[in-house]
Amino acid sequence: MKAVLETIAPNNAHSFDFITYALPRFNCPYHYHPEIELTAILAGDGHRLVGDNLTTFSNKDIVLLGPNLPHIYFCPPDFDAGPVGAAACVIRFDPALMLNGSLMTAPEFGAIRRLLKHSARGLSLPSVSASHILPKMLALRDADPVHRLLLLLDLLNEIATLPRLEPLASRTYKPMVDDVQSRRMEKICAIINEEFTHNLSIGSVAKRVHLSSAAFCRFFNKATGRTFVQFVNEMRIGHACRLLMETDATIAEIAFASGFENLANFNRRFQQFRKCAPREFRNKISASLNG
After folding, report:
1. What does the alpha-carbon distance between residue 222 and residue 177 come to, in Å, rounded to a whole number?
2. Using CA atoms, how far apart are residues 274 and 234, in angstroms rounded to an integer?
3. Contact 92, 16 (CB under 8 A)
């Protein structure tokens, strides 16, 4: 799958960018850029696709994405949290800022160099780290220029020492770089995100992006590392998890609201992707929140 190259205007006042977004919902295209990006979700939830890694995200989700790694965030079709339902802060910088120059070759910066090298596949920070990483990110917003750069170094060093940084894209992932393919994949993502709770067939989606069913399957598998059915089921299970956590709906009601046509198939797929039954998942979440 080919992502859209996002061109970022240079900022002569700063060596890196600190950006905040406050939107009704996340609506950026599937894109990539040569800069390294650290993103923290301040509000909102949905699905995140990084390379060939599809997973859910929610408030205080933090990821570090390496150069030219395609990604997209999208909220569920029923997401409605008012005019500012989705918010994020983003730190973005040229890899050369941290990897070039004699100062950065000093042994004291070894952990940061290794972190940035490992960010090529994307790294998800452990959720427990948000309580101290997020304030450090937000502190950059109002700092004076010199202090701002020092704070960035301190932030990256802090992340480099975290345990259990989770790689996102697979080791074998290689992004596609054709503009036509990028626009096609973006359209497919939009269709799936808006309609995964309904009856989606390969043939119907393939027709809408002007491919035969066979060509569509080859294209989709190469782009995401999974079949169309697997991808849609992952979206549905992610949506079901949200409903299990946030509503009192019955398991059957959640299964049908997530796009599954029968309860048995829902239970099988939930077990496949979450390694537990839906009721067990709900009980674990409830226990963790009340414990």
Report:
1. 12
2. 10
3. yes
Q: Nearest 5°: phi and psi at 53? A: -105, 115
Q: Which of 192, 268, 190 is nearest to 228 (CA)?
A: 192
Q: What single string gives the DSSP state of each residue in 35-78?
A: SEEEEEEEE--EEEEETTEEEEE-TT-EEEE-TT--EEEE--TT
Residues linked to residue 55 through DSSP beta bridges, in sequence order = 48
CA atoms within 13 A on the CB side of 205: 27
Closest CA to 254 of 193, 47, 285, 242: 242
Cβ(194)–Cβ(25) below 8 Å = no
pLDDT score at 29:
79
**Could you write out the three-class secondary structure of 208-270?**
HCCCCHHHHHHHHHHHHCCCHHHHHHHHHHHHHHHHHHHCCCCHHHHHHHCCCCCHHHHHHHH
* Cα–Cα distance measured from residue 61 to residue 111, given in angstroms and rounded to the nearest whole number: 22
Q: Which residue has the tokens 């799958």?
A: 1
Q: Is 201 helix (H, G, I), strand (E, B) or coil?
A: coil
Mean pLDDT, the chain cut into blocks of 10 residues (291 residues total): 49 77 83 91 91 90 93 80 81 84 77 92 93 94 89 94 93 74 84 91 95 94 89 93 90 95 95 93 79 54
- Determine the pLDDT at residue 99: 73
Q: Phi first, then psi: give them for residue 90, nearest 5 degrees.
A: -130, 130
Looking at this protein, which amino acid is placed at residue 236? R
Spacing of C-alpha 281 from chain mean position: 22
The residues, any chain, with a CB within 8 Å of residue 60's CB and separated by 6 or more, are 40, 41, 42, 127, 130, 134
Cβ proximity of 48 and 82 under 8 Å: no
| pLDDT at residue number 1 | 43
